[in-house]
Records
---
Amino acid sequence: MTTIFSCAKDVTESLDKDLGVSDWLLIEQERIDKFAAATGDHQWIHVDPEKAKSGPYGATIAHGYLTLSLVNYFLPQIIELKNLSMGINYGVDKVRFPMPVVCGSKIRGSAKTTHIELINEKAVQATIRVTVEIQGEAKPACIIDTISRYYFE
């Protein structure tokens, strides 16, 4: 189920509420390799499946920043913004990587609004905590407090 924000008041009323979860996403080696190519991070634990078999996880793992970047993939599945004139990625407050994402794992995002700052009657700054879960694991892969500004019409 998607949470819909149509105005600043909708966002302010979401404080301390679970906003929902995204679909599961399979993390495949091709995605990891493309991220390595884009960032120049070719560490063997990410890009060498043969060597990684004898490493600490038995397979390659996704880059932490790849996992973090997928928040932009998950959030639009969790929240829908209507009547928006502009949205700005303002930054992040805190990021943690409690557990690596092993290649072949499925991950998804869940979200909760943790802080709201009203800018004016049509604009709000929201801190949304996104937890990237790994299917079948007790610990999450990533926890990030995203900060966004939403300007409604």
---
Amino acid sequence: MKLQYLAVLAAILACANARAAENADANSEDIVGFTPIAVAAQEVDAIAKAIQGYVDRFHTVPPLRHQQLFPLLEGQNPQKYRFLSLPSSRRNAAGEVVDPWREPYRIEKQAGRIIVTSRKIHYVRAVTLSAIPTKSIANHPTK
């Protein structure tokens, strides 16, 4: 239960300090305080919201590998719709989107949902998949 309180506190701090978090050097190893936690919580929320937007708009689950998922979320999809915008500096050499500790965000499918989290914080967001039809929108004829 204490971990949930920490996650809520991190989310509140992320909202209250969004400007400071955007300007912080999150990759600095000597950074002290909550800024990396706030950045990670904010990005976990943004990624989950973007995936939910993709699911709602296209009625299908996107591929969950970073190299395929993030281009789709950033506008390389059939409707050119941008669900997410992250700076290129937030990627590692393999093209994965990374948290402030340079670890790739974990995005995995579980029963009826997609889980988004950072390995360094206990903050999880879930995208619910219960209302998704079994066929992709690409399989439906256009009007």
---
Amino acid sequence: MRGKKPPIRALVFDVFGTVVDWRTSIIREGRILGRRKRLRVDWAAFADAWRAGYRPAMARVRSGDLPWMKIDDLHRRILDGLLKQFSIRGLAEAEIDDLNRAWHRLRPWPDARRGLARLKRHHVIATLSNGNVALLVNMAKYARLPWDTVLCAELFHHYKPDPETYLGAAQLLGFAPAEVMMVAAHKDDLRAAMACGLRTAFVRRPLEYGPDVRIDVAADRAFDYNTDDFLDLSRQLEKAGK
């Protein structure tokens, strides 16, 4: 007979797509730049292409093909290629740097601030993102996200789904892995956390990749919780006395 699970003491959150709406935010930033510089660019395609370069770039770091680089630097490598791909010319270095920092200015999903504040009443809440510290701190200030602390891949020099990120987060928070719950809109992230002994909560974000892209948002019984948003997660945890 399995022992009783310990109480959940901390919630750690994936950020891009789970807490913030990266796609709409990047499109908005691109359109602002486009109007100012008179650029004719499909900014939705641009945002999708930028995000599509994210996993392959991290995979090169995880495999050792590239030395350790924080996400700001990987984003810039991807951006330099996109400027050529989308024939974007005439930007000064400061303007390119500011565009790269659009990832610091992502807007939260409508439930994020209220949901996080409610979850914070009874739990430690922290990021557990592949974003770097400066990016996540700036985003928290911009989007008014009430984190207790910022944890990320940069602290461990390992990108998710490496076990070092999940186990390292639990260790830094001072809790056993089973006392920490990973909250994410991405099932692969949750499965990797589960393999490290963390609890898991799936949050459905059907519009992460836009209204025309269907993604898997079906409930999965392998996860401890399946939720519609952070407010729903807080209600479920309160009901369960967790």
